[in-house]
Amino acid sequence: MDYLLALIKGAVGNEQLARLLFLGAIGLSAALAVVTVALLVMGLQDPVQRRLALIKRGHGDLSGDQRAPGNLQLLLEQVGQRFAKEDRSQVSATRTLLMHAGYRSASAVQLYWAIRLVLPLTLLGLALLVLPLLPKLSLTLALLLAAGAAGVGWLAPAIYVEKRKAARINRLRAAFPDALDLMVVCVESGLALPQAIERVADEMAVSQVELAEELALVNVEIRAGIPSAQALKGLALRTGLDDVQGLVSLLAQSIRFGTSIADTLRIYAEEFRDRRTQAAEEQAAKVGTKLVFPLIFCLWPSFFLVAIGPAIIGVFKAFGKL
């Protein structure tokens, strides 16, 4: 407390005004904390508000296998609704990003923005609690540390989602040629495209879970009455792979003009595998360039120290410098 009072006094230059500001900040924080806790308890305990929240997120009829979301999740969704745009006519960039990262739930955008709002405030509060324990800390450095904590809380969810998106796209890109090969076998054996997609999804449910889920979702959409071309476009949108968009265009043309789907899949599988091989060769060719920096900063100083160090010491001894 004395530390914070000293910081405020150093900022305003008046001890009486600093005490008033300090007491006012404490009173305002206590009032806001009481109001927040009261609203939280009332909102979570009110069955009407909880039921409305469940209906909004698609859990209006909860039964057997469906599990209701927890109070914390509902609270985060309500907070995130203040920042997420409810534009149903077009898919937002945030929803597309989360979809590519594997988060396809209706409340994913709300939870994402809620976490990006709550986490900076939480880290900022923890920083304000820890700063008084650090001795001889200037006001400028304290403000920088608090701002850094808030910045880390704001950027950490976005970085995590981006990393998850990149890893998921890489896994899907690696698994797609094998899925196309299995689809070719199924189509040539006499299965239609929806049945072939279903069989491939079942076969890859163990080795490639994410791709199997995407293919199963395509099959569910086709069974629900959505045209095959539109369901495949949805697959390209959810996966975020440019190569899948080309495959969707070829399959749409094959379905429209009645050409052989098996030949289309076989040719595209070969091209997909060639592109994957070229990407692997490109990554391998970059290894030599990437090794230059570890060699310069880690290996070569030690090598020069061991190889030239004794000679330099001998020279200094010969000239009487040591």
From TrEMBL:
Gene Ontology CC annotation, any one: plasma membrane
Lineage: superkingdom: Bacteria
Keywords recorded for this protein, A-Z: Cell membrane, Membrane, Transmembrane, Transmembrane helix
Residue ranges of the TM segments: 20-42, 113-134, 140-161, 291-316
Entries under Pfam families matching the protein: T2SSF
Chief subcellular location: membrane
Membrane topology summary: Multi-pass membrane protein
Location relative to the cell: Cell membrane
Entries under PANTHER family matching the protein: INTEGRAL MEMBRANE PROTEIN-RELATED, PILUS ASSEMBLE PROTEIN
Record's protein name: Type II secretion system F family protein
